[in-house]
Amino acid sequence: MNEQEMKEVQEKASTLVEALPYIQRFNRKIIVIKYGGSAMTDEKLKGEVIKDVTLLKLVGFKPIIVHGGGAAISKWVRLTGNEPEFINGLRKTDALSMEVAEMVLNRINKELVARVESLGVHAAGISGKDGNLLSVKKKEIPGGEDLGFVGEVDKVNPKILYDLLEKDFLPIVCPIGLDKDYHTYNINADDAACAIAEAVHAEKLAFLTDTNGILKDVDNPSSFISEMSVSDAKKMIKSGEISGGMIPKMQNCIDAADNGVSRVVILDGRIAHSLLLEIFTNRGIGTEILSDDAEKYPV
């Protein structure tokens, strides 16, 4: 082995050693991954994310994937001769669109199951209908406009998730739920991931997004924030430092951290292996929001 080869091997060993305390910390702990954005539409990235989650499972974590599918739903709605409609950034879902959304989300769900299974790990694809996992009520928005069959999570029954984890399955959840009259509703995947993370008392909730995290100054990439408390996040929303489309995502992070999830991280899913880089390295690469009483990792 020449000097360059030895150096490369030593660097790999150093990376594994750096990962050790995180493997110990998260061993047998539940981690919820909200899977969406470019990481779902780019075939190469899709493969990398599934490999990352499978690795987490194999080293002793208990991951749960909650996925969206907005781009694919819009594509299939157009194929029916209709144009997708959005109100305040939320998809308006009539009866036909609901059928399309459920079909597309179930198709994506089973594709993800197949990818995990191909790597030697057992996965189970479910929707929020299964085991009454996600009970919803009709989502209302300011102004009174009707979103149709768009639901807001009212209650989570995590028993089916605990059963699957106990039997060593990797649960993969698509965000469809039932109301009290057993009507089917589409759910925003971020909302579903948050509700599930809270219900299972996840150690960590990771959002794979198309942003590199939170910047104190949106025009200055060097103002990237690696870590903040819930209190800091609330102050930044109030001051206007966090605005626009990032507000609902940050509010989801705050709600999760306020309701039992120790740490919530916003990750750039466009970066290959961003999930592993965040979890297994000292600094991570995303913005992590900690509950005010969460223990900070040593740097």
What this model shows, in words?
With 299 residues, this protein is an alpha/beta fold. 42% of the residues lie in helices and 23% in strands. The protein has 10 helices and 16 strands. The protein has helices at 3-26, 38-41, 43-58, 70-79, 95-118, 159-166, 189-199, 230-239, 246-258, 274-280, and strands spanning 30-35, 62-67, 85-87, 90-92, 123-127, 134-138, 150-156, 170-174, 176-178, 184-187, 204-209, 214-215, 224-225, 227-229, 263-268, 287-290. The chain has an 8-stranded mixed beta sheet, sandwiched between helices. Strands 6-7-10-9 form a 4-stranded mixed beta sheet. β9 and β10 (184-187) form a beta hairpin. α4 packs across α5 (95-118) and α7 (189-199) packs parallel to α9. The longest helix has 24 residues, at 3-26. The protein is globular. 40% of the residues are buried. The model has no long low-confidence stretch (mean pLDDT 86).
The main β sheet shows up as: 8 strands, mixed
| Structural Rg | 19 Å
Low-confidence stretches: none
Report the helical percentage: 40-55%
Please state the average pLDDT score. Answer: 86
Per DSSP E runs of 2 or more residues, the count of β-strands stands at: 16
The coarse silhouette is globular
Query: Biggest sheet: strands side by side, in what order?
Result: 5-8-2-1-11-15-16-14
- SSE pattern: HEHHEHEEHEEEHEEEHEEEEHHEHE
Structural class: alpha/beta
What is the CA–CA distance across the termini? 33 Å
Q: Tell me what portion of residues adopts beta-strand conformation.
A: 15-25%
